[in-house]
Predict the structure.
Amino acid sequence: MPRLSLYKPERGKDYQFIDDRIFEMFTVGGTDVNLHLLLGTSNPTDEDATATLPQYDEMSVTNIQDLLFLENRDRKYEEHIYTIRGIYNLQDLELNLSQFGMFLSNDLLFLTIHMNSTVKTIGRKVVIGDVVELPHLRDEYALNDYQYALKNFYVVEDITRPAEGYSPTWFPHLYRLKLKQIAAGQEFKDIDVDSTREKELAINEAIVQDAEANALLSGYETQHFFTLQVDSNGQPELVRADTTAIDASTVKLHGSIDHVMRNPVRDGYIGYLLGDGFPPNGLPFGCGITFPPTGIDGDYWLRTDMIPNRLFRYDGRRWMKFEDNVRMTLTPREDRYTQKGTFINNTNSTEICGEDIPERQSLSKALRPKIDIPHLDNPEECDSNTPGRRE
C-alpha cells in the first residue's frame, strides 16, 4: 500500500479541487475589481536617450525608464480593462493632524485575489505598477458638473503570497496586493484620474494676488518717512543755496540767509530689508549703467547694472554707496532682479554659430557629451572656445 501524502510534486486533482472551491468563495463573497494593466514606459527619442535613459527594443513591464533614479515616470497602460474578483477589509479613512499638515493615516488597502483565475483572465500575473479600480467605491453624487461618478484608483505597490492562501497540498492559491490611492500625475496620465490641477492652480493664483496686494515687496516700507540730517551736535545740518555749509546758530542770528537742509548721507531708519533704491525725502536722482561725468555734492545715482540695483550718493569727490534695492517681489517672476530670478529662472538664449543655445540647461543635458565636430555651415564663425569645435 503506497504511503499517504497530501503533498505531491505535481499539482494534481486534489489541488485543482481545492482551487475551484477557493475561486467559488471569491465568486460568492468577493467584489469586482477593474484592472488597468501596465504595458511599460515610453522610449526616449534619439536626442534624449542617454546611458541612464536607455532605449529599449520593445515595451515591457520589466523595463526601467530612469536607471539613475530607478523610476518609471512615463507609464503606458492598456486601453482595455479587465475585471476580476477580490476581497479586502473595509476601513475608514482618517486624517492625521498630529504632523505639519493633513495626512491620511490609513490610505493603504490589502486586496486578496485568486491567483489562477487572475492569470487566466489578464494573461499574466499582477505586477507592481498596475492600477486597480474598485467600482463599488464610486461616488455618484459628487457636487460638481461631472456627468459621471468619481472613481477610486489604487496603484499596486507590492505583491505577496498570504499564509492563509496555502492549501494542505502546500501550493499557493492567492495573491495579496498592497494598494495605495493615487492622484492625477505624470505616471497615471493614461488613466482617467479625476484631476484637481486646474482648480488648485486657480486657488494658488488667487492667494498670490491677495498676498501681493497686502505685501507687494519684501521688507518694510520707509519711503514715506522723513529723514533729517543732523550735525555732530544733533542739530539740523543746513547748507546755503550755493551748497556752502552753515550751522543752525548762524541761521538763528541771520534769518535772512537763504538756506536748505543738507541731503542725508544715510538712511534714518535701520532694519531688515529697508533699501528700496530711492533717495530719502523724495529727492531727485538719476539712473544708468555708468556714473555721470560730473556730480554735485549730495547728488544721488542709481546703478541699474548691479544686482540688486545700488544707490550711490556723491560727497564731492567720490560716489559712496547709500543702499541696495533689496526690497523685491516675493513672487518668483522674471522681473525679480535677484540671483535666483535672473540665474536660476533664466529664460534667455545665446546664439552660438547660428544656433540658439538656452542659457539655462538641466543638469542631465549639461552633462551629456556632444559630438566633437566643426560647424559645417560656416566654420570661420566658430573659435577654439566654441563647444563642438575640433582643433
Notes: Residues 133 and 153 are 5 Å apart (CA to CA). Residues 238-324 form one domain. The longest strand covers residues 75-87. The helical segments are 13-29, 115-122, 197-214, 248-253, 339-344, 363-366.
